[in-house]
From TrEMBL:
Membrane-spanning parts: none
Stated name of the protein: Polyphosphate glucokinase
Pfam families, alphabetized: ROK (PF00480)
Classification via CDD domains: ASKHA_NBD_ROK_PPGK
Annotated family: Belongs to the ROK (NagC/XylR) family.
């Protein structure tokens, strides 16, 4: 092990976050004063099937590769309460009721782990290091990826485990009939790719979903994240909502940074 790296992990302003996604598991040291990565981000393909033990082993591989000896923050695409995963919408069903602190701590030699929902982690990171407007009023951050994740913030404080990607939306049909569809099955970024929707068509769907969030939560601001937010200039101006919409600033750093913040601040949903 590199002792210099180990020493660094003892510095109070350095944390380590890991973001578990459907295709990749990514981890990095984070400077908790700036939200920037220290050194390189390590990415390992998500094992298939992505069972809790297989994923926890990959987490251990990343930490070892990074020579990190301190506590670890970890995101999962699942509702997390009392450090237990309660849902598994886009991951292996074995995660349901999984004792997360047990499975991860065991894999990483008993050290401290904090596990939280991926979009919640992104929300924490955006409040701390993103658009200053995220710190005030009611803010909804939505991550647009395989699914739709959400973080609801009031004056910068997170209301954990909102699952707005699973809100049922009334889908208008040409026939005049109205059918119900889950927001993420209608407007996630993966749906745009799968159905080869133009940005215009997809923006219409997303507007429909965001309007529903407006009707129920009356937010002051939407922050939209996920890989597709990189191309925000192509589709952001096409959105038709009353609320101000901005792209997430931390982009693909948000999950890792939020995870590192959570373990550092003792946030354990
Ligand atoms: C899950 C959420 C997660 C989101 C983004 C949804 O399917 O239910 O918990 O935050 O996907 O990964």
């Amino acid at each position: 092990m590199h002792s210099s790296n180990l020493e660094r992990s003892d510095e109070a302003h350095v944390g380590f976050g890991i973001d578990i996604g459907g295709s990749g598991i990514k981890g990095a040291r984070v400077d908790l004063r700036t939200g920037e990565f220290i050194g390189e981000r390590i990415k390992v393909a998500t094992p298939q099937p992505a069972t809790p033990t297989a994923v926890a082993d990959t987490v251990a591989t990343i930490i070892n590769q990074a020579h990190w000896a301190g506590p670890v923050g970890i995101t999962v695409p699942s509702v997390v309460r009392n450090q237990q995963a309660l849902t598994a919408a886009n991951i292996d069903p074995e995660w349901i009721d999984c004792d997360l602190s047990d499975v991860f701590s065991t894999a990483v030699g008993g050290r401290e782990c904090a596990v939280l929902n991926d979009a919640d982690a992104a929300g924490l990171a955006e409040v701390a290091f993103g658009d200053p407007r995220a710190q005030q009023g009611v803010v909804i951050l939505a991550t647009l990826g395989t699914g739709i994740g959400s973080a609801l913030l009031t004056d910068g404080t997170l209301v954990p485990n909102t699952e707005l990607g699973h809100l049922m939306i009334q889908r208008p049909r040409r026939s005049g009939k109205i059918t119900l569809v889950e927001a993420e099955a209608y407007a996630a970024s993966s749906v745009r790719q799968r159905e080869e929707l133009s940005y215009k068509k997809w923006a219409k769907r997303l507007s429909h979903v965001l309007s529903e969030y407006e009707r129920l939560f009356w937010p002051d601001l939407f922050i939209l994240g996920g890989g597709v937010s990189r191309k925000f200039d192509k589709w952001g101006p096409l959105l038709e909502v009353d609320t101000q919409v901005v792209p997430a600033r931390l982009r693909n750093r948000a999950g890792i940074v939020g995870a590192a913040m959570a373990v550092n601040r003792g946030i354990r949903p």
